Amino acid sequence: MELDPKALALFKEGYDKIIEGIKTLGFDVTDENFADTAARAAKGLHELIHDQTQVRKDVDALLAKTFPAKYTEMVISKHNTCFGVCPHHLLPVIYRISMAYIPTEKVLGLSKLSRLARLIARGPRLQEDLTHELADLLHVNLASQGSAVYIEGLHMCMAARGVGAHEARLVTSGVRGVFLELATREEFIKLVVAPPTTLV
Ligand SMILES: [Zn+2]
Predict the structure, then answer these.
(1) What is the torsional sign of CA 9, 11, 14, 20?
(2) What's the 155 CA to ligand 1 centre distance in angstroms?
């Protein structure tokens, strides 16, 4: 993803102010560790917040490349680690995203599901919105029989601030089409909530 110079400059201005704020708290910001911190932090934030016009283009291109479906069984991509920030605090969120769909005529390449989740997750957005946008894309854009998305989010705003909340995960799910049927939904949930195990 290309970094936008205008956004980077604005982010850096903001971080310059933040460093001033840190100075008022008694920290020596002339220490060499603070040299170029504002510029580095701006880049770091941009890596968590991507340009939406570019994201839309990438998502469209990704969803346009499909293969004819040979089978109409559930396709699942589970435990994809993705990153974003929350819109309330702009603090990082680590997501574990699992998604599934049941194709009608077309399927996506397997790696495309992870890429799709990673693309959509970047940015200041609500986990609920992320969940439903992914579910819609896999249902509407793939003209699938149905889709399901299950996301566990570790929000730094909860983990780092609240006492005892550091283990809390926000869980959201969204289902479309045939996944609205209880049995299909349960099959999906059973498969994705299982703890991750190593393959070898
Ligand atoms: Zn937050």
Answers:
(1) negative
(2) 6
Calculate how far, in angstroms, residue 27's C-alpha sits from the geometric centre of ligand 1. Answer: 26
pLDDT in tens, 45-78: 999 999 999 999 999 999 999 999 999 899 999 9
Over residues 9-28, the pLDDT tens digits come to 999 999 999 999 999 999 99
Element (H, E) at 135: helix 127-136
Catalogue all structural domains in the chain, each as residue range(s) with its CATH number.
5-48 (no CATH), 52-193 (3.30.1130.10)
Q: Pick the closest to residue 38 from 13, 7, 61 (CA basis).
A: 13
CA of 23 from ligand 1 middle (Å) equals: 25
95, 151 contact by CB (below 8 A): yes
> Amino acid identity of 138?
L
Global pTM value: 0.90
98 Cα: distance to centroid of ligand 1 (angstroms): 22
Task: Tell me how far apart the alpha carbons of residues 183 and 4 are, in angstroms, rounded to a whole number.
Answer: 46
